[in-house]
Each structure stands twice: as C-alpha cells, then as structure tokens.
Amino acid sequence: MDLVQIDVLYNRDDIKNKVQMLGKKISEDYAGCELLVVGILKGAFIFMADLVREITVPLEIDFMDVTSYGLSTSSSGEVRIIKDLEYSVQDKDVLIIEDIVDTGLTLKHITEILKTRNPKSIKICCLLDKPSRRKANITADYVGYSIPDRFVVGYGLDYAEQYRNYPEVCIIKPFKAADPQ
Ligand code: 5GP
What we know:
Helix content is about 20%, strand content about 35%. The chain is α/β, with parallel strands linked by helices. A 6-stranded mixed β-sheet has the order 4-3-2-5-6-7, sandwiched between helices.
C-alpha cells in the first residue's frame, strides 16, 4: 500500500459528545413515535451502532447496501441495490443513517426509491457532510459535522476497505517524503 499521512480530525471524545447530542435531538423530535432506522452499509455501521444507543424512542433497525454504477471514484448518481431492506417502510417513520454526504447523489437515489414505498416520513442523519461537493438537492436533517472537501477515514469510513476500525475520524492523504511536517 502507498504511504499515507493520517491526521485526526475528530477524536473519540468529540465523536461521543456529538453522537449523544444527535441522539438527544432525534429522541425529542420523534417523541411518541416508533422509528425504522435504516443504515447504509458499510460506512454507517459504527456510527449507527453508537447512535441507536443514544435514541430513547422505540425503534427497529434495518440495513441497505448500494453501489454506484460506473468505474469512477466519485459517485455517478446511478445506484444499484446490493442488499435491500428486510422490512417494509410503508407507514413508518424512516430515519436513514449515512456516514457522509458528499455529492448527495447516492442519498437522492435512495430516498427516491424509499419514497415509492410509501413511508409515513423520511429523514436523513449523517455524521459528516461535505456541502461544497453537493450535486444533488439533498439536505440532511441531522448533521454531526460539516467538513471541507477532504477525504476522511475511520469510524466506519474506509480507504480501499482499510481504516474502518480507526476510532477517530481522520483526514488521509498521500505521503510525500519531501513534505514539510
Ligand atoms: P455521494 O453520493 O454523496 O457522493 O457519496 C456518498 C458516499 O461516498 C459515502 O457514503 C461514502 O461511501 C463515499 N464518500 C464520500 N466522501 C468520502 C470520504 O471523504 N471518505 C470516505 N471514506 N468515503 C467517502
């Protein structure tokens, strides 16, 4: 693997506090409701595991896995469902959990698919948001951190399937030996 430089952007305490705040807000907003929490694999798995333990309203969980068509490293916007939901979303309050919203094309497609299945409501919660990269008209209802256009890994997010297990959210970049530190 190429040499990379990894800098911590948000540490364990930052993330813990942020997830607690998000869970509290979601619990308040959905008081008296029952939620269907939909995690988008694989990147959301750690965030979702922590977040649902901070949500106090009754909830069910389900997962969806999608992939972008095409060979480009950036999202093409055309997504193919690799793993569909197990449960019906009909008449349910659906909360989609995503690791990061970048162009927004993936979530646009997912919400369009789920809307055809007649949920009572759909909202989006993401840990990270890169608004400067947006191509689709997607706004998450709950956002942990709004970040600049940098590639991040850790806390579920990968680079070539590595680093998902890092407990921090980190910025990763190719390491050049001549770079001043
Ligand atoms: P979008 O359709 O919003 O452009 O793509 C969202 C997906 O792209 C995310 O779920 C994630 O898998 C991937 N992605 C976008 N930005 C990053 C990033 O900075 N780091 C990582 N690891 N994945 C990213």
